[in-house]
Design a protein that fits this description.
Number of strands: 11
Helix content: 25-40%
Strand content: 25-35%
Number of helices: 6
Structural class: alpha+beta
Radius of gyration: 23 Å
Distance between the termini: 41 Å
C-alpha cells in the first residue's frame, strides 16, 4: 500500500465506515439469535449502509491515486526535445517528483494529452477538487496523409489503476452529479530543433511553451 493511499482521508473514512458497518451487522446477527427481529433489521440496515458508504470512499481513494490536485496553473512536466533525423526525435519527460523517461518519437511535433477529473460542487463539499493525470505522449505529423499512413509512436504517461474513475464516469451516467470526466485536453509543439519545453496544466487545459532560460 502506498503512503499516499494510507494517508488519504477517503481511505481512512473507508476503513472507519467499514469497521463500524461490520460491527453493526454482527450486532444485528446477535439480536437475531436473541429473537429480536426489530433490532436485527435496524442494525443490519445501518451496517449495510455504512459498508456501502465505506466502499464508495474506498473506491474514490483508490481511483484518484496517480492524479495530482489542480488549483492553479501548475508545471506538469519539463520536456527536452532532440531531433534524431528527418521526422525523428527523442523527447525526455521530467516529472515534478523526479521521474524521468526518454521516448523515441516520429513526426514533426511532440503531442501530449491528459485526463482531467472535474468534481461537481456536491463533491467539492466533501473535499474533492479538480485533479489531473498526464495520459500519453506521441509524435504528430503536419500532413494528415502521414498521420494516416506514417509510423505511429504513442507511449503511455499514466499509471495502471485498480479503479479507473475517468473510464467509469464515461461509462456510467449516474456519476454525472458528482464527476465530469468528459473533459480531456491536449497540446503539441514543433519538434524540428533542440528545445526545452514546459508543460503546464490549469483548469482550462494543457499548455506547452518554451522554458524560460535559468539566469
Amino acid at each position: 500500500m502506498s503512503s499516499e493511499l494510507a494517508t488519504s482521508p477517503f481511505f481512512l473514512a473507508a476503513v472507519t465506515l467499514g469497521a463500524l458497518g461490520a460491527i453493526l451487522i454482527l450486532a444485528g446477527l446477535a439480536a437475531l439469535m436473541r429473537k429480536r427481529p426489530r433490532r436485527f433489521a435496524l442494525r443490519t440496515f445501518a451496517g449495510l449502509l455504512l459498508l456501502s458508504l465505506g466502499g464508495l470512499a474506498g473506491t474514490i481513494a483508490i481511483g484518484i491515486q496517480g492524479y495530482l490536485a489542480l488549483t492553479r496553473e501548475d508545471v506538469a512536466a519539463h520536456l527536452s526535445v532532440q531531433p534524431q533525423g528527418p521526422q525523428r526525435f527523442a523527447a525526455t519527460v521530467r516529472f515534478p517528483d523526479g521521474r524521468e523517461t526518454t521516448f523515441e518519437l516520429a513526426g514533426d511535433e511532440i503531442y501530449v494529452d491528459a485526463h482531467i477529473l472535474k468534481w461537481k460542487p456536491l463533491a467539492n463539499v466533501l473535499g474533492l477538487h479538480t485533479v489531473y493525470e498526464l495520459d500519453r505522449v506521441a509524435g504528430r505529423y503536419h500532413a494528415i496523409e502521414q498521420e494516416r499512413a506514417g509510423v505511429r509512436t504513442v507511449y503511455s504517461l499514466g499509471q495502471d489503476k485498480l479503479v479507473d474513475l475517468f473510464g467509469l464516469r464515461r461509462r456510467y451516467a449516474f456519476l454525472a452529479p458528482l464527476l465530469d470526466a468528459e473533459y480531456g485536453s491536449a497540446t503539441f509543439m514543433p519538434a524540428t530543433r533542440p528545445v526545452e519545453l514546459e508543460l503546464r496544466v490549469s483548469t482550462t487545459g494543457l499548455l506547452m511553451r518554451e522554458a524560460t532560460p535559468q539566469k
